[in-house]
Amino acid sequence: MSCGLPVLEVENLKEIYESVKKRVVGREREIRNILAALVAGRHILLEGPPGTSKSTLLQAIAEEIGVPFIMVEGNADLTASKLLGYFDPAQAVAEGYKPEHFVEGPLLEAMRKGGILYIDEFNRIPPDALNVLMRAIEEGEMVVPRVGPVRSRNGFRLVSAQNPYDDVGTTKVSMGIYDRLCKLRMNYQSREEEKLIVRLRTGCKDERLAELAVNIVRRTRSHPEIRQGASVRGAIHFVEIFQQLARLEGENAEDSEVYLSLVLDAAYMALSGKLWLVETSQKTPEQVIRQIVHESLGMVSGEEEIRVRPFRMTEASREVREELRRFFRGSSGRGDPPRG
Description:
single chain
C-alpha cells in the first residue's frame, strides 16, 4: 500500500497561511487544515453547500503556494478520456499516433505541472472517470496508451468538492475513493462575515442594505418550506440588483410602497432559482420569498395567501428607509443616485 505523494517542501508555511488569511474573509480553520493536508501529501474532499467559498479558498491557497490551479466542473460528460486527454485527430490521421500529438486533459496537465486539480461537483462524475483518478491519487502515476507512463511532479494534489444535500444527477462514490481522500466539512459563515463579504463583493456602503440581504438569505436556511436555502451569493446578487433598481427609480424609491416593491423584485430575481423547496410544499419559491422579506422587514403577512398589505413602517424598516434617502443624497446633495 502506497503512503501517498511526497510531502511538499514549503519552508514559509506560516507566511503562506497569513497571506491567504488576508485574501479570504474568515475561514482560518479551513485555511489551516487545507494547507496542512496539501503539504503533507494528502488529497482532499471539501463537502458543503454551494456558495461556501470552496473554490475561492483553494485558488488563493494555490497562488500563495505557487502551484498551478486547474479547475474542472464535474458532470456526467466528464469521461475518463476527457480527464486524460486525446490525440489530435488531424495530426493522428496525417502522421499517426505520436506522443507529441497528444493533447493533455486536466488530470495529466496537473500531474505534469505539479498543480492542484480541483474538481467541483465530484459526486456527478461517472464511475469510469473515478476509476482513472484512483491510481493517479494513490500512486502519482498514469500509463496512457501510445503515450507511455506519466509521473506526477511533486505538488500534484486532487481537491474535490461536493454538495452532500444534492441527490439530483449524482452518482455513488465508492469507499475506495473516499478512503484515499481527507474530508473537510465547510458550512455557511457567520452573519458578520457574510455581511463583510457582501459589502466587499458589491462595494455597497450601506451597511443596513447589506444586513437586510444577509438576514433574508439566512432566513431561507431555516424556513420549514425550504430544503436547501441560499448562500451568501444570493445576498450579493440581491444587493447588486436592488442598487440598480433603486437607481432606475430615483427618489421614488423613498416611497415606502415603491421601496417594498424593489426589495421584493430584487429578492425574486436573486433567490427564486437558488431555493430548493421541500417536496410537500404547496407554495412557490416566490411566495416563500415574499413571506421571508416581510418577516425581515418586520411586517405581518398572511399564512395561506401572502399579499402585500399597505406598508406599515416599523422602527427597523424606518431606519432602512432613512439609509436609502442618505444613499441618494449622499455626496452630491441631489436626488440622483451615485454610480456604483
